[in-house]
């Protein structure tokens, strides 16, 4: 694991959702690690399952785009909904867009 990502290893083993989201972001964007959508989805899911809104947003977006996961608007809406219910304005906007435009939101 590259040095920048290695700093997240200890918190990840302790279930730190923020670190999991950060690692998902790094893999999604290829920052400090090779770009890898499958790894990004894995780490976003880890954080999302603990209620981290940024991880929920990241995972939802990956479902919208079909990056690292099979494209699935139902899953995208479900993850955006979880983040939106926690008051996340980006997720609320994305959710509204999906309801307004359905699968055309891609």
Overall radius of gyration: 14 Å
User: How is the CATH topology named?
Assistant: Serine Threonine Protein Phosphatase 5, Tetratricopeptide repeat
The CATH superfamily bears the name Tetratricopeptide repeat domain
CA-based shape: globular
Outline of the structure:
With 106 residues, the protein is mainly α.
List the helices and strands and how they pair.
Elements: H1 3-6, H2 9-13, H3 17-29, H4 37-48, H5 53-65, H6 73-85, H7 89-101
Helix pairs in contact: 3-4, 4-5, 5-6, 6-7
Describe this structure in words.
- With 106 residues, the protein is mainly alpha-helical.
- The chain has one domain: Serine Threonine Protein Phosphatase 5, Tetratricopeptide repeat.
- Helix content is 69%, strand content 0%.
- The longest helix is centred in the first third of the chain and has 13 residues.
- The chain starts with a helix and ends in a 5-residue tail after the last helix.
Give the tags:
single chain; 106 residues; mainly alpha; Serine Threonine Protein Phosphatase 5, Tetratricopeptide repeat; 0% strand; globular
